[in-house]
From TrEMBL:
GO molecular function: histone deacetylase activity; hydrolase activity; metal ion binding
Keywords recorded for this protein, A-Z: Hydrolase, Metal-binding, Zinc
Lineage, top ranks: Bacteria, Pseudomonadati, Pseudomonadota, Alphaproteobacteria, Rhodobacterales
Protein name: Acetylpolyamine aminohydrolase
PANTHER family per the UniProt record, alphabetical: HISTONE DEACETYLASE 8, HISTONE DEACETYLASE HDAC1-RELATED
Lineage: superkingdom: Bacteria
Name of the gene this protein is made from: aphA
GO biological process: epigenetic regulation of gene expression
Family statement drawn from the similarity comment of this UniProt entry: Belongs to the histone deacetylase family.
Length: 341
């Protein structure tokens, strides 16, 4: 299977992460890259670098205002006396008026949902190329190359059209799905990350042409807390085109696979002709976030379940943090898919 990655994605190296009132090392480490590369290669993936498709396919999902902020904010932040080396807001307005602050600090609060998405010198370039990798994966599929794996990192599924959050800046899965949609296909996004894909949901919430489905640990007691509940079903034309399947903390393989069956039935009933898998691997029993308890065997079965759909699949990397099984979990998904396809 073809895999896509660009070395400029190494440039994002976040330092800070705040949890439970403590400043901790950020878990979205560049070291994830080599573990995921090894995991993909063990499943027979051959990596190539993406072309530069420009900002158009990214701006098809993100606002020009947000992209302007994201490209320039690190440079602007340096003009603040005594500023730190990462852009982290100290205000997160839950309700935003129509007004748009002029200051770097105000705009940072406007466009960064939490403290888990610090922006440093290389963040924009890394996220830009992570998105280009996703676009490259979509183009590979459109060119008839078949299913592919995108090592998109930094990840994307918590990023809304105008809002970064939870380690995410540009929504790679949404950008890829929109690219496929613009080429006349009818995509469904299935998000198997342990965290709800709130940004992806937000981007397509009022649309009926891209189905969004997410399986995740119940947000009543798990990030992102404010999205991911079963009653969020879309709005307007999109009502009924968003499906959330929150799972009890610690759910094992059987519970996860049962919910995935429900998700894939919905994909079929959408008439989807291509699937974007928002491939978080942090539902693993070994993941430091400890939300769900999917085993390596479970990840093989997840891969096989996607193969059983009989549709081309674009696997877009989301979360999944350093543990002894991170690379193996990726190998298992891709092997499970290829064996059953
Ligand atoms: Zn996650």
């Amino acid at each position: 299977m073809k895999a896509i990655f660009d070395d400029r994605q190494w440039l994002h190296d976040p330092k800070h992460f705040m949890a439970n009132g403590k400043i901790l090392p950020n878990p979205e480490q560049p070291g994830r890259i080599e573990v995921l590369q090894a995991g993909a290669r063990a499943a027979g993936c051959v990596f190539e670098t993406p072309k530069d498709a420009g900002l158009g396919p990214i701006a098809a999902v993100h606002t020009a205002e947000y992209l302007t902020f994201f490209k320039n904010i690190y440079r602007r932040w340096q003009y603040i006396d005594g500023a730190g080396d990462e852009v982290i807001p100290n205000i997160h307005p839950a309700r935003r008026s129509d007004g748009y602050p002029k200051s770097a600090t105000g705009q940072s609060g406007y466009h960064q949902a939490d403290t888990a998405c610090p922006i440093a010198k290389g963040t924009y370039e890394a996220a830009y190329w992570s998105a280009q990798s996703a676009i490259g994966g979509a183009d590979h599929l459109l060119d008839g190359g078949g299913s592919a794996y995108v090592l998109s990192r930094p990840p994307g599924h918590h990023a809304f059209g105008d809002l970064a959050g939870g380690f995410c800046f540009l929504n790679n899965s949404a950008i890829a799905a929109q690219r496929l949609r613009d080429a006349g296909l009818r995509p469904a996004i299935v998000d198997v990350d342990v965290h709800h894909g709130n940004g992806t949901q937000g981007i397509f919430y009022d649309r009926d042409d891209v189905l969004t489905v997410s399986l995740h640990a119940d947000p009543d007691r798990f990030y992102p807390f404010f999205w991911g509940h079963a009653q969020e079903r879309g709005e307007g034309r999109g009502l009924g085109c968003n499906l959330n399947l929150p799972l009890a903390r610690g759910t094992h393989d059987e519970g996860f696979l049962k919910a995935l069956g429900t998700a894939l039935e919905r994909v079929s009933m959408h008439g989807a002709d291509v699937v974007v898998v928002a491939l978080g691997l942090d539902a693993s029993i070994d993941d430091p976030f400890q939300g769900l308890a999917v085993t390596q065997d479970g990840f093989s079965r997840i891969g096989a379940a996607f193969a059983a759909l009989g549709l081309p699949v674009l696997f877009v990397q989301e979360g999944g943090y350093l543990s002894d099984s991170l690379g193996k979990n990726l190998t298992r998904v891709l092997d499970g898919y290829q064996t059953a396809a």
